[in-house]
Amino acid sequence: MDIVFADRAEAGAMLAERLAHLRDPVVLALPRGGVAVAVPVARRLGAVLDVLVTRKIGYPPSPELGVGAIAEGGEPVFDHQLLRRLGLTAESVADVVADERRELARRVETYRQGRPLPALAGREVVVVDDGLATGGTARAALRAVRAADPARVILAVPVGSRATVEALREEADEMVVLATPEDFRAVGQWYERFDQLSDADVLGLLAEA
């Protein structure tokens, strides 16, 4: 089914209904856009909401092209097939990884201000983003969460590429995706309003939750 959401809040409210069977989960949002989706999810479930910060590892000549990603508490997760195609190795992008680790640490401090992540061991954990394109940051996030020994990991997104959704199924115990359009090109095309969020926006949403 193809859906165009008015905005992230509407998408989150619709996603929350599909997650209403969960009892006492921890909801982790991938900043920045995932936070706006996760707020109505956490509110509907009466759940703890926090962020799990991720960063894309970009191809040096064209940083928008992701060759991997890293999540707080986890190790870099690379697309090794793409690295080989570009004639790169994990070692050859070590400087990019170091830069992204620094930015990741800055965002963790900005968003969490010294608080640790909620305890995840033995809990159901819902990882929320606003959509799945290549899935690199979601994969890194899921692996970082898995390393914390949760009872179950659920990946919940309003919309995603069909190929990416299928590729990520092995990373999560459950996938909740509202729409996987055939002509998926970018996450933003499935939202009427898809504003870029700032750090201040994220902090405001977390305070609201």
What does this protein structure show overall?
With 209 residues, the protein is an alpha/beta fold. It has one domain: Rossmann fold. The protein contains seven helices and eight strands; from the N terminus they run αβαββββααβαβαβα. The strands form two sheets. The protein has a five-stranded parallel sheet, sandwiched between helices. It has a three-stranded antiparallel sheet with strand order 3-4-5. Helix 2 packs parallel to helix 7.
Low-confidence stretches: none
Q: What would CATH call the architecture?
A: 3-Layer(aba) Sandwich
Helix fraction bin: 25-40%
> Could you say what the CATH topology is called?
Rossmann fold
Query: What is the name of the CATH class?
Result: Alpha Beta
- Total helices: the number is 7
Mean pLDDT figure: 95
Write the H/E string, N to C.
HEHEEEEHHEHEHEH
**Quaternary organisation:** single chain
The Rg value, from CA coordinates, equals 16 Å
Strand order of the largest sheet: 2-1-6-7-8
The tally of structural domains comes to 1
End-to-end Cα distance: 30 Å
Shape label: globular
